[in-house]
């Protein structure tokens, strides 16, 4: 199974509230990376961290 199919299957198990929370977290992380209002993390590190979040969804 392709990795994207595994992520798709995990995402489909989230309820609406969990999905909205995940989107809000992603938006917040990207906002910090783009606008530079947070730590010393680079944009690439932020994207990699967001990518890893998808692999941690049960």
How does this structure look, described?
- This protein is mainly alpha-helical and 58 residues long.
- The protein has helices at residues 3-12, 16-35, 43-55.
- The protein starts with a helix and ends with a helix.
Structural class: mainly alpha
Assembly classification? single chain
Strand fraction: under 5%
Low-confidence stretches: none
Distance between the termini: 17 Å
* Biggest sheet features: none
Overall body shape: flat
Helix coverage percent: over 70%
Mean pLDDT: 89
How many strands appear in the DSSP assignment? Answer: 0
**What is the CA-based Rg, rounded?**
13 Å
Count of runs of 4 or more consecutive helical residues = 3
Order of helices and strands: HHH
Short description:
By secondary structure, the protein is mainly α.
Structural features:
single chain; 58 residues; mainly alpha; 3 helices; 74% helix
List the helices and strands and how they pair.
Elements: H1 3-12, H2 16-35, H3 43-55
